[in-house]
Amino acid sequence: MPQIRKILVANRGEIALRIMRTAREMGIATVAVFSEADRTSPHVRYADEAVCIGAAPSSESYLNIDKILKVCADLGVDAIHPGYGFLSENAAFAKKVKEAGLIFIGPSPESIEVMGSKLAAKQAASKYNIPMVPGTPDAIDDRDEAKRIANNIGYPILIKASAGGGGKGMRVVENEAEFDEQMDRAVSEAQSAFGDGSVFIEKYITSPKHIEIQVLGDHHGNIIHLFERECSIQRRHQKVVEEAPSISITPEIREEMGRSAVDVARSCNYYGAGTVEFIMDENRNFYFLEMNTRLQVEHPVTEMITGVDLVKEMIRIAEGQPLAIAQEDLQIRGHAVEIRVYAEDAANHFLPDIGTLHTYVKPDGNGVRVDDGFEQGMEIPIYYDPMIAKLITYGDDRETAIRKMVRAIDEYHISGVQTTLPFCRFVMLHEAFVNGSFDTNFVGRHFDPDVLSTKTDSEVAGLAALISVLMKDTSPESKPVQNEEVYANASKWKARRFAAH
Ligand code: MV4
């Protein structure tokens, strides 16, 4: 069995650091690659060795396969971890890594390829008894036939691009009269975005919850799941809040969904870490949508509730070791919530806000984890994703994790750029979030940007003081969490801090 001694991380920012930390714990040397824009980044300093591979645009640096492979050859690297984004789901890259005699810390090129096509993924999964949304099994080439199927399924239907991702090439069709127009749009959008105009149709689930299952597979045919993550709070297909476990599913559904996820992974002989995405309707019917063949941004919430270091498992798997954990060994302990801190102005249509982190003070303390890749004084480059950090809190139960999150958000001090922190605080304290009555439409349905700008800190503190007096004798274990209650307690702290200044 090959032992990995040196890993090159083909990524940047928080995820590069995240991976290097585990590598170091395992006694494995680390190599960073970086663009000219990231010269002073923490991931560059953290690595044992670091090499600049090109100009700021990712096409010239983080996506530059030849340069990355050359660094591996020059420095005696054994394995590459791609992180997420960039080259992580590029089957051709995974293949070239292998051909260069290196280990790709991820799935096989074949698994990446199958799951990269939604139609191929559904076809593979259909070997097993996995619930799927009613729809067409193949790309549409005959429109009349497709319209007949749409009528059978019943409108509204959804047209999806087989090569799609992030909602691109996706079109809702409300009735047959719109069919041709929406089909034309979907095909041309898919063609220009992915160079592949193949589309298929599905029944449109109007208010789904987005629930995904983490899986791990080894090279010996063992596949396990590490329960679900609830990821419904998103805007324009960008997740903002994730948590584990989901409050919307029963132990029975969890087991069924877990089994389905393992079957999806088995259908493409999966090894490595992967995530199987489902949507769930109001009647708690769930359907397989697609599989992500990478480590995901939101993996920490799974780590918190299972105690498993997913990066460590990925590395062990890549070395050819059998999974050290059996399904029966795993159990959910406690509850974790993650928010994504983006340099975006939620009060202004979430426009990316570039600039310098004049103040950057992180929260800390029991049950608080911050995965970030920036420091005070650094600039947020315009070239990459504007995520500054992930803030994760962990507690015995959901209420505790949410309370910790509000406390941690209030301890987070960032100036110089607008961030999604106030928006995330709004979500944490929203009744629909707190009581679990939310779906993927949460932001559109509940978020009014004005709520962030109209309340000043002193108004909040005043309101909080009032509420805390009214709710003085609340006993935390006997009541479900109340919006105002969390609000009051979190803000009392802030009020005291304000008074001290
Ligand atoms: C759907 C759907 C409703 N019905 N499919 C969005 C991106 C891609 N991963 C699949 N997506 C959806 N597929 C059917 N048949 C609703 C969505 C969807 C969605 C899914 C997960 C998370 C957020 C979403 C936001 C809007 C739409």
Describe this structure in words.
The protein has 501 residues and is α+β, with helices and mostly antiparallel strands. The protein has helices at 13-25, 42-46, 65-75, 91-99, 109-116, 118-125, 143-153, 179-194, 251-267, 299-306, 310-318, 398-411, 421-428, 431-434, 442-446, 450-454, 457-470, 483-500, and strands at residues 6-9, 29-35, 49-54, 79-81, 103-104, 157-161, 171-173, 199-203, 209-217, 223-235, 238-244, 272-280, 286-292, 335-342, 344-345, 351-352, 359-361, 368-372, 387-395, 413-415. Strands 13-12-9-10-11-14-19-18 form an eight-stranded antiparallel beta sheet, sandwiched between helices. A hairpin with a 2-residue loop joins β10 and β11. The protein is globular, with a radius of gyration of 23 Å. It starts with 5 loop residues before the first strand and ends with a helix. 46% of the residues are buried.
